[in-house]
Amino acid sequence: MLIDGAKESEALKRLISDYTKMSFDEALELVKYTISKNVEHLVDTLKTNANEIPVIACGGGAFLLPKKIKGASEVVFPEHLEVANAFGASIAQLGAENELVINTMLKNEADAMEELISEITDNLIKKGAKENTIKTIAKESIPLAYLPGASRLKVKLCGELG
C-alpha cells in the first residue's frame, strides 16, 4: 500500500533522470559529491587551526554524511543520532536580548539598564520561561564616541522552559 500521492522508487528514479537529463546513478553521485564538498567547507570554516577535528553526525539528515570527511580526524555516528537535534531542542533554554541607546545627560544609566533587564525578563516569562531560572548571559554599556553623552546598553538573558 502506498501513501496517497507517493510514487514507486523506479518512477521517482525516472522522474529524477528526466528532470536532471542524466542517469539516476549520475545524479546520485553528483548529490553525494556536492554534500561532501559542502561538509568539507563547513568543517574548514569551524576549525580554529589547520589540525583535523572530529565530526559528530547528528539529526535526521546525518545518514547523508560521508564516512570520511577531508579535514576531519574522524566522523562519529553515535547511537540514536537521528533524534539528537530533537533531544537538544527539548532541553534548550529560552533566550532573549535587546539593546537601546540612551542620553546619559537625561536618563540615569543604571535605571535604564534595570528597565531593559525588566523588559527582557517580562518577555521571557511571556514566552514560557520560569521566572526563578532567568539568568543574565551578557550585559554591556558602551559610550558612543560619535554621540557625546550617549551610551548603548545591551542585555542578553536566558531561562528554562516552565
Short description:
By secondary structure, this protein is α+β, with helices and mostly antiparallel strands. The chain has 2 domains: 9-87, no CATH class; 93-159. It is built from 4 helices and 5 strands; from the N terminus they run ααββαβαββ.
Describe this structure in words.
The chain has about 160 residues and is an alpha+beta fold. It folds into 2 domains: about 10-85, no CATH class; about 95-160. Helices cover about 40% and strands about 25% of the residues. The chain contains 4 helices and 5 strands. The strands form 2 sheets. It has a 3-stranded antiparallel beta sheet with strand order 3-5-4, covered by helices on one side. A two-stranded parallel ribbon has the order 1-2. A hairpin with a 6-residue loop joins strand 4 and strand 5. The radius of gyration is 25 Å and the shape is elongated.
Kindly list the characteristics that best describe this protein:
about 160 residues, alpha+beta, 3-stranded antiparallel beta sheet, two-stranded parallel sheet, 5 strands, about 40% helix, elongated
Q: What order do the helices and strands come in, and which of them pair?
A:
Layout: H1 9-20, H2 24-46, E1 53-56, E2 72-76, H3 84-91, E3 94-103, H4 109-127, E4 135-143, E5 150-159
